[in-house]
Design brief:
By secondary structure, this protein is of the alpha+beta class. It contains 16 helices and 14 strands.
């Protein structure tokens, strides 16, 4: 086969591969789907000829339009009333249609995009949010409502009577739950007693009374929050316990917000039943405020406890007997971080569940999980790294609250450990803020990990004539007199360096904790220097000069010096 022929064959094959899918798509037919029944609403008689129930969108819009006209007798044909006896369908049908419209208006905003205008309810656009795209459907869920003892759905089904065309009506299960849903979400006690003029429609499915009741409700909630805030403040001042006083002051604002939100849920659920325009916003908002308020109240109470523990124990953390308390203190900080993480996750999940976002974005989240992971890994690498490092400290405890550490030439105590940083209180009262990830990346000395006692050293450079033995005796006597040196621990004197100019004598002493050790070191050095100055000032380093005679006949001499200090003559 020649090269030209081969090119023509390959070109033809490529063209077929491009054209064939388009042709097949044009030839594709989707099978119709429905629920087959014998009859539909036989007790209502024949449905009106102008009643369009051919598509999901038309069925729902017809129900709402007929409700606006007050024609609930015709609207009853949009419900599956087959569970009712035929002689009750005419009487109960309009009432159930009216209640269903009330439930829809009060609990949801109709998502018309989710209601196809095709009779087979096929979704033509495929995406991660619509996994059933390209498939004909016979049932569509419009809403999911909480109800005791089990949740209920607002759902429409496609039914095919034996000798009629397939139609879309509200499902039998939805009709069975209408009375219970109406009792739960229908008009509240206050609304039933309002005059008719206030119940007239305003706009977007709302009524006049709702726009009047909303600011009044907000005012009542704010008043309750202010009263709660004031009562908690007064309680904190009245109780002569500093911890309770501090905790009440910290938690009163978030707790007041949480109580406001909980009362708001009660009012909107049982006293004032707002329409879907308000309900879809107020319900998740009030739940979110409740969760956030309670979480912040708990966290601020824990913070107040930690601050009280800090004031009580951090100043005494040099005592080795407090090691278990410092470990508990660190564990409380770790618990706070876990509580905060759990609170954020639970809040997010509850919001998603409340808004039913899992149903809409679940597939797209799974599809984009890899992309999100990469984006978070790049954008939040530092933040996530610090959080993980903080959790690592909380679990492994290489350092605890109150530990004495030597970190990059800084000596101090670990005062706080947060998600992204920790605070070191240096010996001179300064606060050193260090990113957690940076802190555990490089070595540091933890003087309190096992025992708070620590050995301190200081060195004196003295002349060669100084007697180390005599200095040892004096140092031991001075250390015993000081009272802070532990006699059973390291207490010694040694010559640690020697050269032609001086000898370096180092003194070792151990104290019970870093603070006492540092102060003891300063005192012992001063006392040893005073003793040498008073008893043997000649032991300080000095320069020596050696004079050599020149050859006979030369009247001059030269000097050769070694060492440092005072010059000596002939």
């Amino acid at each position: 086969m020649s090269a030209a022929t081969l090119r023509r064959v390959l070109s033809t094959a490529c063209l077929l591969l491009l054209v064939l899918p388009l042709w097949l798509n044009g030839q594709t037919t989707f099978p119709e789907r429905w629920f087959e029944i014998e009859t539909l609403n036989a007790g209502l008689g024949e449905p009106p000829a102008d009643l369009d129930r051919s598509t999901p969108r038309q069925a729902v819009s017809q129900l709402l339009l007929l409700a606006d006209e007050g024609d609930y007798a015709r609207a009853a044909h949009l419900l599956n009333l087959n569970e009712l006896p035929e002689d009750e369908q005419t009487r109960r049908g309009p009432e159930l249609a009216r209640k269903l419209v009330e439930i829809i208006n009060r609990t949801m905003v109709v998502d018309w995009a989710a209601l196809p205008s095709r009779s087979d309810a096929l979704l033509e656009t495929s995406s991660g949010e619509r996994p059933l795209a390209g498939q004909a459907r016979r049932s569509i869920e419009m809403s999911f409502l909480e109800l005791d003892p089990a949740p209920a759905e607002i759902r429409i089904n496609r039914l095919k009577p034996a000798e009629s065309d397939a139609v879309w009506v509200f499902a039998r299960q939805t009709v069975d739950d209408i009375d219970a849903l109406y009792e739960r979400y229908g008009p509240g006690w206050l609304e039933e007693r309002l005059p008719d003029v206030l119940q007239r429609p305003a706009f977007s499915g709302t009524r006049i009374w709702e726009w009047l009741a909303l600011p009044v409700t907000i005012g009542v909630l704010v008043l309750l929050g202010w009263v709660t805030h004031s009562l908690l403040g007064g309680l904190g001042r009245a109780v002569p316990v500093d911890w309770i006083n501090r905790a009440a002051g910290r938690m009163r604002m978030p707790l007041a917000v949480a109580l406001m939100a909980m009362l708001g849920q009660f009012l909107t659920g049982w006293v004032i039943s707002f329409s879907g325009f308000f309900y879809t916003v107020l319900s998740p908002l009030l739940i979110g405020l409740t969760i956030v308020g309670l979480t912040l109240a708990v966290l601020r109470t824990i913070d107040a406890t930690l601050e009280k523990v800090t004031e009580r124990f951090v100043d005494d953390i040099d005592d080795s007997s407090e090691r278990d308390r410092r470990k508990l203190y660190t564990s409380i900080y770790a618990l706070r971080r876990f509580v905060l993480l759990a609170a954020v996750l639970i809040s997010a999940v509850l919001f998603m569940v409340q808004l039913r976002l899992f149903d809409n974005v679940g597939m797209s989240l799974l599809a984009s999980a890899g992309v999100i992971t990469v984006v978070l890994g790049i954008a939040g690498r530092t933040v996530l790294g610090n959080i993980l490092a903080s959790l690592q400290i909380a679990i492994a405890k290489p350092v605890r609250i109150g530990d004495a550490v030597q970190y990059e030439e800084h000596w101090g105590y670990v005062e706080s450990i947060y998600y992204s940083f920790l605070v070191l209180r240096t010996w001179d009262g300064r606060r050193l803020v260090v990113p957690v990830q940076y802190f555990i990346t490089y070595p540091f000395e933890n003087w309190s990990m096992v025992d708070a006692s620590i050995t301190r050293t200081f060195a004196l450079r003295l002349d060669h004539c100084a007697d180390p033995g005599r200095l040892r005796e004096v140092f031991e006597a001075v250390a015993r007199e000081d009272g802070k040196a532990i006699e059973d621990e390291l207490l010694m004197t040694a010559v640690t360096e020697h050269n032609e100019d001086y000898q370096e004598i180092t003194f070792f002493a151990t104290a019970a904790n870093p603070t006492e050790a540092w102060l003891m070191k300063m005192r012992l050095r001063e006392k040893m220097a005073d003793w040498i100055r008073e008893h043997h000032p000649d032991w300080w380093p000095s320069d020596r000069v050696q004079l050599d005679r020149l050859p006979a006949g030369d009247g001059e001499s030269t000097g050769r010096s070694s060492g440092r200090g005072d010059r000596e003559g002939d």
